[in-house]
Design a protein that fits this description.
The chain is mainly alpha-helical. It is built from one helix and no strands. Residues 15-42 form a coiled coil.
Length: 58
C-alpha cells in the first residue's frame, strides 16, 4: 500500500552579499566564537571547584 514518490534533485539557493555585509558577518562570528570560548572556560572552572565551594544556581 505504499505510494511511489518521485525524488527531485536538491535545489541550490544563490544569494548575493556585499563585501561590507560579509565583513560584518565574519566579525559577528568571531565575537560569538570568543564568547563560546569564554563560557566554556567559565563552565570548566566551575566543574573543577569542590562541590561545597560551588555557587548556588538561582
Amino acid at each position: 500500500m505504499s505510494t511511489a514518490q518521485m525524488t527531485r534533485p536538491p535545489q541550490t539557493l544563490y544569494v548575493s552579499i556585499r563585501r561590507d555585509e560579509l565583513r560584518q558577518l565574519k566579525d559577528e562570528r568571531d565575537q560569538l566564537q570568543q564568547e563560546v570560548l569564554r563560557l566554556r572556560s567559565y563552565l570548566q572552572s566551575q566543574l573543577e571547584l569542590p562541590s561545597d565551594a560551588k555557587p548556588a544556581l538561582c
